[in-house]
Write a structure and sequence with these properties.
Layout (H helix, E strand, L loop, with lengths): L2 H27 L8 H4 L4
Length: 45
């Protein structure tokens, strides 16, 4: 593998890893949505 291929490989891996970590952090920091209580919505009382 020549030097330019190795540099391209490392840059590509770095960019992909950066975006993966960035989006994973966004998913973990997203506020949780309150789930509807299906039992209280289906009550006939």
């Amino acid at each position: 593998m020549n030097t330019s291929a190795l540099i391209t490989l490392l840059i590509t891996h770095g960019i992909v890893t950066f975006f993966m970590v960035n989006f994973f952090r966004k998913v973990l920091k997203a506020p949780k949505k309150p789930e509807p209580d299906s039992y209280s919505e289906n009550d006939n009382d």
